[in-house]
Amino acid sequence: MYKEKLPYSQSALILGISSIITACCCWGVIGVILGIIGLVNANKAISIHEDDPEIFDGINNAKTGKTTSIIGIVIGVISMIWHIYIFSTGEYQILFEEFNNMTGEY
Predict the structure, then answer these.
(1) How far is CA 14 from CA 7, 43, 64, in A?
(2) 104 inside domain
(3) What is the DSSP letter of 6?
(4) How many domains are there within the chain?
(5) Residues of the chain whose pLDDT is less than 70?
(6) How would you classify the pairing of strands 56-57 and 4-5?
């Protein structure tokens, strides 16, 4: 018997992976947004699969998408907190000067 692809499972996986990548690169904000969207999609997919598991295939993508979305959200929140701390304490200027000294530019 042919099983249909589980709706929202593939998008949850893609958004979860993207949230990890962007949480590390984009100050965490975009990673948190993508992670939340991926988590919502993963939860939708899991609830659809629980309603009728014989029809749909792809629950592993939904579960992996949920896990990667949670990881992306956590990394994004940590990154945002770190950036807020650096800017609010004035340590950003010190880091910027050290970077310029290491690269030899002024």
Answers:
(1) 13, 14, 10
(2) no
(3) P
(4) 1
(5) 105-106
(6) parallel
Tokens of 86: 């650096």
For residue 89, being part of any structural domain is answered with no
pTM for the full model?
A: 0.85
Note whether residue 56 is domain-resident: yes
Nearest to 68 by CA among 36, 25, 26, 28: 36
Specify if 103 maps to a domain: no
Taking CA atoms, 106 is separated from 3, 91, 92, in Å, by: 62, 18, 16
Tokens 């979305």, residue located? 69
Q: Rounded to a whole number, what is the largest CA-CA distance in the chain?
A: 67
pLDDT per residue as tens digits for the range 55-78: 988 899 999 999 999 999 999 999
Domain that holds residue 60: 4-76
